[in-house]
Amino acid sequence: MLNSAEQQAWEFLSKAPHYAQPAEVETHFGRALAAFGYDRFAATLVNAERYGKEPPALSRQDFEAWDARYWGERYVVHDPCVKLLLKSSKSFAWTDAKPLGDQRAHAMWGEASEFGMNDGYVVRVFGPAGHEVLIRMATASPDTDPANRAVVESLSTVFGTIMLKHWELQDDNP
Fold it and tell me: Which of 59, 64, 78, 163 has its CA 20 to 30 A from that of 19?
């Protein structure tokens, strides 16, 4: 029998391809993530040659203030998550990245905590035409259960793929 988090995940995974609007996808993805302890998320369109510039957002839920601070302080230069992204396409938790940081990165983690973000998870989704969607999730909790990573990665992959599809269907995108 599935627990409530698994039920939320299954509901999202089975219904997500049928949601007509991006807002519907975001609402149900947010509900599924919350069951695993993540209270905010963002999906951004990135390409390797664009690291260092703020990428366009496909979706943001409670990440606006942090993103403004992050890019305003140019934390991208010191963020150990970026080092992991450049090194590997694997998903990772913030706890995997934190040991790779310098003094400035430690300041960034402290500020993230002040924004109510103490742990997070990052998933990269690859789309057609070289597009990449980066799904960032965060929580006020000091840590999350590593046993849930595979399910959270699956949820994020479906979410990122669908959000990219909606973005590509906009009139001004090829």
Answer: 64
- Both tokens of 174, joined, read 């090829």
Cβ(103)–Cβ(87) below 8 Å: no
Q: For the whole model, what pTM was predicted? A: 0.89
21-26: long-range pairs with CB below 8 Å, 24+: 21/166, 22/58, 22/59, 22/163, 22/166, 25/59, 25/159, 25/162, 25/163, 25/166, 26/59, 26/61, 26/163
CA distance 158 to 73: 31
Mean pLDDT of the chain: 89
pLDDT of the residue at 48: 46
Burial of 35 (0-12, 13-18, 19+ CB in 10 A): buried
Query: Which residue is associated with the tokens 């890019």?
Result: 71
Q: Residue 55 is which amino acid?
A: P
